[in-house]
Amino acid sequence: MRFIPNKLQLDVLRRHIGPFVFCFFTLMFLLLMQFLILYIDMLVGKGLPLGIILDLIVTNLASMVVLAVPMAVLVACLMAYGKFTELNELTAIRAAGINPFHVITPVLTAATLLSIFLIWFSNDVLPDANQRARSLFIDIRLKKPGFDLKPNEFYEGIDNYTFLVKRITHESDSLHDVTIYQHPTQNRKEAIIKAQKGRLDSEADGQTLTLYLKDGTILRKMDRRKKYKSIDVFEETAFDRYRISFDLSELAFSRSNPEDRSRNDRTMDIEAMMTVVDSLQKEVVSQKKSIINNKSYIIPFQDTTSNKRPDRITTTDTTSKAMESKFIALQYLETKKEQNQLKSITLSLLRSYKSTLSDVATDTEWRIGKIAQYLVEVHKKFSIPIACIVFVLIGAPIGMYTKKGNLGYAALIGTVFLTFYWISIIQGEKLADRLFITPFTGMWFSNILLGIIGLYLTIRFCTSFKFSNLWKNRG
Can you name the residues that pair with 162 across neighbouring β-strands? Predict the structure, then answer.
C-alpha cells in the first residue's frame, strides 16, 4: 500500500510542472512588458548600445523572478488540483482509503524547497542584480545619451544651450515653435534663437546632431559701446533657414563600476542590513543617553553663607530692590538687575536645550525610520518566498472544491487572492516605512491571514473536522 501513494504523489507533481512553467513564463512576460512600458522613453532613441539595454533587462529580471514564482505556484495548484477532482480521481483515492492530504504533501514539500531557494536567491543574487540595474540607470541619466526633448519642458542636456519646444512630431522628428537660448562662451556671444519649425537629423557616426530651423529670428547681445557702457545693445536678424550642429561625443554612454556606488536597502543582503540596523540602534540609544545626561540647562547655585535665605540689603534705590518671586533661585538674589540677568541666562540656556532636543528628536526619528525600512526589506526576503507554501495551502483545497482544471477558473480565483496579497504587501511596506505599523506586521499580515485560511480549508477538506463540533461536543 505504500507504493501506490508514492506513485500517485509523483503523478500529482508531474501535473504541476506544466501549469507552473506556463504560468511562470507568462507572468515573467507580463512583468517584463510592464517594465518596458515604464522605461521605454529612457531606453529608445538614446543611442544606447544593444548590449546595455539587454543587460538592464536581464538585471531587472531577478526582481521579477521573486514575484512570479509564488504567483505561478498558486495558479498551478488551482489548475492541477482542479483537474484532479474534475476527472473524479479524488473520489477514487478516497474510495481506496487514501487521505487527500497525501496528494498535497508532495506539492507542499516542493513549495518548501522552492521557498528555501527563493530565500537564498533574494539574499545572495537579487541585491547584486539590483545594484547593477541601479548603477545602469544612474549612468544613463548622468550621461544623457541622445537628445531628450519633450514638449513644453526646458532641456539643458547639451552644454551651453537651453531648449524649449512647444510641440514635437515624433514620426518625422519635426519641432514646432522652437526657442533656443545660447549661453555666452569665448567663441560666441549670448543669443536667443526662435523659429516656427525645426527638424533633427543625426549624422552617421552618431556623435553629431544637426538642427535645421525655418522662419525665425536670432537676437544677439552685442558688445557695449564706449558711449553707452551702461546700456545693453542687441541685434536681431531674421532668417529663412538656419542650421546648428551639436557635438554629442561628450554625451556618449560610459559605464561605471557598480561596486563604486553606495548601496541601499534593496541592494544589500540580510547580514549587511542587520549590521546597519544594529549601528543605527546604537546611535539612537547613544543620543537618548546624551539627552538624559545633558545638564546644560541647569545653573549651579551655591550659598556660601548659610542654607537659609539671606537677609535683603536695604537700599535707597527702590527700583534696584529685588522683586518678590515664587522661584526660590530668584529669592536668593538681592537686586532686580541680578534677577533679570539670571532670567535671561536661564531662558537662553533653555532655548539652547530645546533646540538641541529638537535636533536629537529629528535625528532619532530619521534613524528609526531607516531602521524600519531595512527591517521591512529583511522581512520581505522571507515573507514573499514563504508565500509559496501559503499558496499551496490555499490553492490545493480551493482547486479541489471548484472541480475545474482550466486556466480561466484558475486565473480568476488566483487574481482575487494575488490582488489581495500584493495590495497587503505594498500597503504594509508603506505603512511600516511611515512607522504606522511594525515591519513584521506589514510584511507578514497577509501570509498569516491567508495561511490560517488555507490551513483551515486543508484540514476541513482532508478530515471531518468542523468548528461547530467544538461547541456541539460541549453541549
Answer: 181
* pLDDT tens figures, 124-172: 999 988 888 888 877 776 555 445 677 888 887 677 788 889 888 765 6
Contact 80, 398 (CB under 8 A): no
Residue 414: Cβ within 10 Å count: 25
Enumerate residues 6+ apart whose C-beta is below 8 A from 59.
Answer: 129, 130, 132, 133, 136
Contact in structure between 134 and 256 (CB atoms under 8 Å) = no
Q: Cα angle vertex 268, ends 267, 271, to 5°?
A: 170
What value, to the nearest 5°, has the Cα angle with vertex 390 and ends 383 and 422? 55
Cβ–Cβ under 8 Å, residues 184 and 165:
no
Rounded Cα distance, 451 and 394, in Å? 7
* pTM of the predicted protein model: 0.67
The pLDDT, as a whole number, for residue 255 is 65
- C-alpha to C-alpha distance for 270 and 378, rounded to whole angstroms: 6
- Measured CA to CA, the distance from residue 87 to residue 404 in angstroms comes to 9
Taking a C-beta distance cutoff of 8 angstroms, is the pair 5, 102 a contact? yes
205/225 Cα distance (integer angstroms): 43
CB atoms within 10 A of CB 380: 22
Backbone angle region of 151, left / alpha / beta, with phi > 0 → left and psi within -120 to 50 → alpha: beta
Q: Which three cell numbers stand for residue 170?
A: 515624433
pLDDT digits (tens, 9 = 90+) for 245-277: 876 655 555 566 777 677 878 888 899 899 999
Parse the chain into domains and list their residue ranges. Answer: 161-251
